[in-house]
Each structure stands twice: as structure tokens, then as C-alpha cells.
Amino acid sequence: MTGVTLTAIRKTYGTRTVLADINMQLDQGELLCLLGPSGCGKTTLLRILAGFETPDSGQVVINGQDVSSLPPNKRRMGMVFQAYSLFPNLTALQNVRFGPRVRGLGTTSEQTKEAQRLLAMVGLAAHVDKFPHQLSGGQQQRVALARALAVQPDILLLDEPLSALDAKVRVQLRSEIRRIQREIGITTVFVTHDQEEALSISDRVAVMNEGHVLQMAAPAAIYRQPADAFVARFIGAGGVLAGRTSGATVRIGEIALPSDAAAAMPSGTEVEMFLRPEHVSLHDAPEGAPAGSVAAEVVDLTFFGSLSRIKLGLTGAPTGDDAGSGEIWADLSSAAAERFVPGTKVWASWPSGAPRVLAR
Amino acid sequence: MSATLSRSGGPRVGLGNWIIILACGLFFLVPLIVTGIFSLWEGGHSYGVSSYVLLIHSSGFWRSLLLSLQLAIETILLSFVLLVPAMIFVHLKAPKLKPLFEFIATLPFVIPAIALIAGLSTLYTGPNWLIGTPNYLVIPYFFLALPYGYRSIDVGLNTLDVKTLTEAGQSLGAGWGRIIVLILLPNMTAALVGATLLTLTIVMGEFTFASVLLFKTFAVFINDTGQNAVTEAAALSLFSFVLTWIAMLGVIVAGKRQRTRIGAR
């Protein structure tokens, strides 16, 4: 059986449970992102896959072989680290050749040819003889990627490989990683805390928190149908409103917020309603606004270039920890958003099928 | 202290600093110059290189010099074999033991040489090739050089991300032997050269252990020569000094080269 299977992986440090019975199945050639806040266990899980950490219990199977008890150097994996990990005494070419040389893959000239091919693939054909200190951070991570692939691994492990790079290089390099991963068709696990990174390059995303995988699904499903409140809050921006269901609405105090999802729940269920900013439309007056529009006031406006994000306070919404934020967001084109200065009274509406409603 | 910049952009050295530098320079150079002149004295108003010629033709000179060099090499090898793997282990697996290692490494500073040798000769017994030969000196020399070797290697390891480099090596299929030989040691050349040269200078100049244990090392030869041939002793002292300074220069050059390679990352 090809791919990677993790069964009941558990890891504790003292009394702290870092991973609690993780089960996962990755298909051959799939790119899975482990996404979550710092300390959620994503790096520990990757290190268990790599063999650098030993789970308290559980099994790691790669391409049908149980590798749980194999040391890292006996596993057929390639890894790119968060910190720059090139060997400073070796050139880019020698770094890439290191793995095949140690593992005895081919003759010296074959190893050199393969290293040159991989460096060309990551766009560094002109830098083969440079030492790591002569390369930029982005170039070093490209070499590290080529080096990881040179050992013809069964699985590629990427531990926040872009986090030390500046924003522009990060975006460019993540696309290249995805392109190369698809080209080679290698099963890949990518650890990141950057949701944009995870959503943009993954086949599937596993959102983790406190040692648990809360949801593992395609990026669009994670974004549109978060399985629980943590995932909904962690992925993307949006308003979180706490209330009770009442027919096809969620009521927050006296305000009725349209939601088809609420209709499927018994009336009076305590829920949280999550509303993405791209679903919210703004109107200057109740006349012309769709039925179910709610009164709100512009609290703040953030300029993002072509888009601007408007923060709205629902008029008459109760406040406090149990009431949610009482705020929603709307994304408008910056040109359209100009007139909504803070303090402006508006009416907000959204398609009734848009909100995600989860029982509290 | 002056902190202004000179026209070339570097810090300007004030008059007070110049006086201190000059005083230090004189304090340092005058004994050397006087020793150098004295080593050339051939009696009366005659000066020449006869004491140097005599030394070069003295079998005791070469024998003691080669013995000290041999002991230095043995001490260096023993230090590397014991210290490098132990320190890598502490860095990676047991960083909490580091203070203990540092404490042990500083002990030779506070234990008098004579006490150390008395303890060692009681504690260490063994085959004749060790106890009955100058090789025995390698044991106390190891302890004597320990603070310097430890510090050099520790600095070398601290300049590297040992954990990441080790894990990178493992992920590529390398075992511990290859990781140490192919990855860590080549990136610690400055530290190793530093430890080597410091150990060399210490062993070349060590007198107490060799004298007490009646082995005729280079330092003992200098001392014996000074008993009845004072100009040769001065020449020997100068030679020994030059040897030490060449070693120190080596440490500085190696350190600069390594910083260029690793520090510029």
C-alpha cells in the first residue's frame, strides 16, 4: 500500500499531552499541510514521521512498511528544516550530492549529474559552486529542497521551510515547492502556522490544536465548512456572533440574523454564527436593502490595496464574553469602501446560506 | 577614552591610548630584545650566532624537542578523541550537564601541578609502556590542556546549529560517525586548530610534571641548559617564544577564516 498511515500516535512530555491519538492517512503524491498555532503539536508529529521523536504509542507506516522503530537515517525521507541547514563547508552541489554519496546511490558522476539536474529544477543552475554563505535565504532553502529530493525519498517533510524568508520570496517559493511536488508526485507533509500558505498549496489541510487534529479536509472545505469553532476562528477572517436559533435566524438579543443553517436546528439552541467578510454587502439605507438586513455602524476600515475590510458593530447587539464579538466584517473594493468612514450608519445583508452555524 | 572617528572612518586613537599602547609594547618587547641580544653574546664585546649553532648541533636539543612534539601530538589526539564526541553529546542530548562539564574543565586551573602529579602517580598504574615511558606525561598534559581544549571546542560548537546540522545529516542517511567526520568537524576547523595549537604551546612549555617525573622534555632541557650555558638558554627561550607565537598566530588566522565562512550566513 502506498502513501503514509499514522495510527493512534500519542506523545506526552511529562504530564503534558502533545499528541493525543492521531490517526491519519495520506495518499501517494498528496500534499498535506499540518496547520495550527504554536504548541499545537504539528512539528512534533512531523518529527515523529521523520524519526527524530519517538511516540509513546502508535504506528508510522510509509508505503506499506512499518518504520516506527527505524532511526531517521534508515527512513527513506527528505526533509527541509525551518532553520538554514545547509552544511557550511560544502558548496550547493556538494550539499545536494551529500545524501546520494552517503547512501551510495549511483557513481560519483551520476550523483553529480543528478545534483546538477535538481539544482537546475529549483532554479539554481548558475549557483552550483557557491557556498551557503554566498546564497540568499531563499536560495539556501531551494538548495535544501534539492538536497532533500536527491535521496529519492518516499516522503518529503517540510518543517516551516519558508518562515525565515521575506513575504515576497515566501509566496514565490511556496508556488515552486508545489510545482516541483506535483512534477515529482512525492507524498509531502508541510508544517506551517500560516493559513494562507496552507490553503494555497495543499491537497488537504489538517488543522491541529492542543494535540488533536480538529479537521482534515480540502482547503475549500476547511474554509467554507469549518468543523468546529476553533477551525472557524483560526481559518480566515470573519465575525463570530453568539446567539440562539429561532427558525431560519440566529437571534442575538433583539436582532434576528438570517441563516438557513439555523433552520436545521431546534429553536433555542445556543449557537455561534460565523460570517465571512466576502459574503457581507452594505447598503446606505433600509430602502433597497434586502429583507433581513441588519442595522450596523462602521467601526473601522483597513486598507489592503485593491480591497478594504470594514469592521461593523451591529446596532443593539449585546456585548460581553457570552455574546461573541457583536461585530461582523465586510470586504469591499477599496473604491466602494471609501465612503464608509467610521461612524457611518449602514445596513448589512448576506445570503442566508452563507453563515456557518455551530452549536455551542 | 576617545570614541571619535578618524578620516578613514575607523575609530581615532587618542593620546592617552597611544601612551598605554607604547608602555605595553615596551614592557613586552624590551625583555625580548635584551634576551635576543644576550643570546648573541659570545663574551667580552663579541657577538655572534655561536649559541644557536651549538644548540642546533646539540643532540639533547633535538631529542627533547621531538619528545615534546610527540607528547603534544599524543595529548592533542587524546583530547580530541575524548572531548569532541563527549561535547557533541552534551550539546545535543544533555545540555543540562554543561555546567558540570565546565566545572570539571576549570579544575586544572585551581589544582596545583605538584598536587596533580602526586595524585596521578598514586592513582594511575599500568603497563611499562605507559608508566615507564614519557607517554605517561600525556595523562597530566591532557588535564593541563583541558580548560583550553574544552573552551575552544565549546566555542566551535556554539557557532554551529549542531542540532539542525545533525538532523539534516540523519535525514540524508548519515550515521553518527559520518555526521561527526563529514559535517561537524569540517565546520569546527578554527576551534580544532585553536585547541591543537593551545595544547601544543602548553605541552612544549610544561616543566613541572616532566621534571618531577624525570623525563627530559624541551622545557626541562631549557632549564638544564640554563644551569651552565646561559646564552644558549636565552636562545632556547627565544626559540620557544617564537614557537608559541606562531601557534597563536595560527589560532587567530584560523578563527578569522572560520568566521568568514560561518558568520556570514
What features would you describe in this structure?
The complex is a heterodimer of chains A (360) and B (265). With 360 residues, chain A is an alpha+beta fold. Chain A has two domains: 4-229, Rossmann fold (3-Layer(aba) Sandwich), CATH 3.40.50.300; 237-359, Beta Barrel (OB fold (Dihydrolipoamide Acetyltransferase, E2P)). Chain A has helices spanning 42-50, 92-103, 108-121, 137-150, 167-184, 195-201, 219-224, 229-234, 260-263, 334-337; strands at residues 4-13, 16-26, 31-35, 57-62, 65-66, 77-80, 155-159, 187-192, 204-209, 212-217, 239-246, 249-252, 255-258, 270-275, 281-283, 294-303, 307-314, 327-333, 345-349, 356-359. In chain A, strands 6-7-8-3-9-10 form a six-stranded mixed β-sheet, with helices on both faces. A five-stranded antiparallel β-sheet of chain A has the order 13-12-11-14-20. The relative contact order of chain A is 0.11. Chain B has 265 residues and is mostly helical. Chain B is built from 13 helices and no strands. Chain B has helices spanning 15-40, 50-56, 59-92, 98-110, 113-123, 128-131, 138-158, 162-171, 176-184, 189-205, 208-212, 218-228, 230-263. In chain B, helix 3 (59-92) crosses helix 7. The two termini of chain B are 33 Å apart. The model of chain B has no long low-confidence stretch (mean pLDDT 85). The A-B interface holds A 50-52, 71-74, 77-79, 81, 83-89, 98-99, 102-103, 131-133, 144, 147-148, 151, 157 and B 160-161, 164-165, 167-175, 178, 182-183, 186-187, 260-262, 264-265.
